Amino acid sequence: MKSYHFRILKSKIISVFLTLFAILSTVPFLLVLYFIIKNGISVINWEFLTSLPKPVGEPGGGILNAIVGTTILIIIALILAVPFGIFTGVFLAEKGDSKIAFLSRLVVEILQGVPSIVVGIIVYLWIVKPMGHFSALSGGVALGIMMLPVVIKSTEEILKLIPREIKEASLALGVPYYKTILKVVIPAGFSGILTGILAGTARIAGETAPLLFTAFGNPFLNFNILKPISAMPLLIFNYAVSPYEEWWAKAWGASCILVVFVLTLNIITRLISKR
Amino acid sequence: MTDIVLRTENLTASYDEHIVVKNVNLSIPRNSITAIMGPSGCGKTTLIRCFNRMHELSPKAKVEGKVILIEKNHQIEEIDVYSIDPMLVRRKIGMVFQKPNPFPTMSIYENVIAGYILNGIKLKKSEADEIVEETLKKVSLWDEVKDRLHKKGTFLSGGQQQRLCIARALAMKPDIILLDEPTSALDPVATLKIEELLEQLKDTVTIVIVTHNVGQAGRISDYVAFMYLGELIEYGPTDVVFTRPRHEKTEEFLSGKIG
Amino acid sequence: MASRFTRKLALNKDKIFNLVLSFFAVLLIFLGVGFFLSLFNASYLAFKKFGIGFFAGKNWDPVQEEFGALPFIYGTILTSFIALGISFPFSIAISIVLGEYFQKGFFAEILRYLTELIAGVPSVVLGFWGLFFLVPLVREIEIALNVPPYGVGILTASIILAFMILPYSASIGKDAMRLVPNELKEAAYALGATRWEVIKKVMIPYARSGIIAGIILSLGRALGETMAVTMVIGNYHGIPESIFSPGNTIASVIANEFTEATGEVYLSSLMYLGLALFIITTVVNLIGRFILKKLQH
């Protein structure tokens, strides 16, 4: 009987130990969050958000170029990835056992795992090189490619969950197939598709590697999508590896804004998909 | 001679090389309730899905033979269902499914006129209001929902949802409504309500109901067809078939030996 | 008969709609094929010059136009596997805690959020944090151990990578543990096994392929991770002598040198590295996903 008590004790000790280990693994995240907020929050003020960077040595200045840049890049990515992703997702949900569907799914899986730096190289080859210079457009395309598999997967999965009866009810009313998909099936899966778009946006908002040789960065305000443009993660990278303390402070401020934005998107996504 | 609304000629339907409906010849009288009964897998659902061309939605499905719809407006017109566009057929022959399936994104009001909305048929506000009220009254749902017409249809009870789906089909003013075991997902009280409702509706529309419930077929139908292994075994007025079945299989089914 | 005419039009629209759907699906396939072909084409020059021997070459010398990828391949594999080693015990602990001890409830939710959200922190921010928090810390350790105190290097990069991949393997591992049938667990309890014995002898063996798939998929992440690694690995072109020395990974070399590469052979060699990275991560990922898919069926 003694050994049985020993075994129970051992089981309990291990469970405490494992739980502590699991709790311990949240420490890096909390540390990162603490560091960013501690160093970043004091930097953020109205001027920081609404003015352009100033040369080293001059006080003040902000990151408006990066905020505008990231907004424009995300918009370009959304314009490309949302229709492309939804239509492909519909195709996979509707004609799932065709050969085309098999190959498309394979590409989706490859895209889900492709390193973002490789996407940067590809878009450099496809757009930057033929155009002869870096541009916001190429950066947006790179981010759009990163976003695409997320939108496709979430569209396909939510549409597969919509009962066949809903689609049949519409067809039985004499509604053509295309209208049934556009007006009944897609609206029924709207929340799932929206989740995918938000998750996709969260994925790309902080991406740096695909922008290094596409959007490239720009210290000035730019609204022309054919010219190089700044972005929050690019600015953080350039400032972080610079030797200037005041630029580090700017990078902390930018990191703080970016992390809050991305984490908020992540949490909203989780809350919607839970419902 | 009785007034026929739909007639099949040597109708054979298959799915993935399996024949599910074999050479069926059937004439359905206008403004009556016809019940199609038989054990599960006998092809009764496939049969009615051939009437409104829903069967062909499955990629591996095939249909042979004819389905003729006889319309009586100013004159009598015979329409070969398989020679015109399926969308048009489905507006003339409505359908109600086993599980209540109101459109989840639409309100009760919108669900009733969904056929118009989705087909892009413009209705004036007054016309739409009229159709909604009239149709909901026909399915005895008006009093229960008139205060919450703009709430989602999915908040209703199962029986109410199914009546809403019947309303949705009726609103298109079809010649026939096909019901595929419409009460199998409902409780007895809701079932009874639907059965009473069907009795009232047969003055305006022809009703074809698929059921594997012998009692239900006996309670509500004027004519009954018995199918077994894809074949139409027996068809006639309900009281005749129920009291003096001519076929041994029918008798076995009615007495609960098969099914 | 007017209605019949408009209905015919609807059929055409259905056809057009189907064509549009297929068009996007086919476009996606072209995108995938295009990825491969473009990279292959761009690296052809380097391939012709160095052949497969490129991956065994120890020198990366832009001045002499001599390019060998061995140090970076070594750096990539070293950082990825050290990261796997660091994250593994934590990943298993989280899988067991969330997959068995706390499957529902407030604590489980909070723990899950806190372990998974680090995947949402942009890589560049983690790298920045690494530079200012982890690098000084590692430097202290190096001073204590009496090795050259670079701070940056293979170890620092591996630690950051471990943080980044942990959520992937932990989340898949947790799902795998939750898939263990209750009857199986109960049968073991009925035989008098303790909770730990059930976990060790019933659940982990049952969930093994899921756990392995999670590890493989997180390896795929680690191999291609760029920004955080680039910022803390030290960018040294030689083969690292120990885990404390600076180094480079395939991804960090590309990130650092791509925009500065002058000369066609130089650029083509970077593309060749990119092609290799693309193929390796794709193979690793597809293996991981294949195992997961087999599990779901």
From TrEMBL, chain A:
Residues 67-269 form the ABC transmembrane type-1 domain. Keywords: Cell membrane, Membrane, Phosphate transport, Transmembrane, Transmembrane helix, Transport. It is a multi-pass membrane protein. One of its GO terms (cellular component) is plasma membrane. The chain crosses the membrane at residues 12-37, 63-94, 106-127, 220-241, 247-268. GO terms for molecular function: phosphate transmembrane transporter activity. It is found in: Cell membrane. It holds the Pfam family BPD_transp_1. PROSITE patterns: ABC_TM1. One of its GO terms (biological process) is phosphate ion transmembrane transport. Belongs to the binding-protein-dependent transport system permease family. CysTW subfamily. This is Phosphate transport system permease protein PstA.
TrEMBL record, chain B:
This is Phosphate transport system ATP-binding protein. InterPro entries: AAA+_ATPase, ABC_transporter-like_ATP-bd, ABC_transporter-like_CS, P-loop_NTPase, PstB-like. Gene3D superfamilies: P-loop containing nucleotide triphosphate hydrolases. SMART domains: AAA (SM00382). It comes from the Bacteria. PROSITE patterns: ABC_TRANSPORTER_1, ABC_TRANSPORTER_2. Residues 6-254 form the ABC transporter domain. Keywords: ATP-binding, Nucleotide-binding, Phosphate transport, Transport. It comes from Candidatus Chryseopegocella kryptomonas. One of its GO terms (molecular function) is ATP binding. One of its GO terms (biological process) is phosphate ion transmembrane transport. GO terms for cellular component: membrane.
From TrEMBL, chain C:
Residues 73-288 form the ABC transmembrane type-1 domain. InterPro entries: MetI-like, MetI-like_sf, Phosphate_PstC, Phosphate_Transport_Permease. The keyword rRNA processing does not apply. Keywords: Cell membrane, Membrane, Phosphate transport, Transmembrane, Transmembrane helix, Transport. Signal peptide: none annotated. Pfam families: BPD_transp_1 (PF00528). It is a multi-pass membrane protein. The chain crosses the membrane at residues 16-40, 72-98, 110-135, 147-168, 205-223, 270-292. One of its GO terms (cellular component) is plasma membrane. One of its GO terms (biological process) is phosphate ion transport. The keyword Transport applies. Its main location: membrane. GO terms for molecular function: phosphate transmembrane transporter activity. It comes from the Bacteria. It is found in: Cell membrane. PANTHER family: PHOSPHATE TRANSPORT SYSTEM PERMEASE PROTEIN PST, PHOSPHATE TRANSPORT SYSTEM PERMEASE PROTEIN PSTC. Belongs to the binding-protein-dependent transport system permease family. CysTW subfamily. Part of the binding-protein-dependent transport system for phosphate; probably responsible for the translocation of the substrate across the membrane. This is Phosphate transport system permease protein. It comes from Candidatus Chryseopegocella kryptomonas.
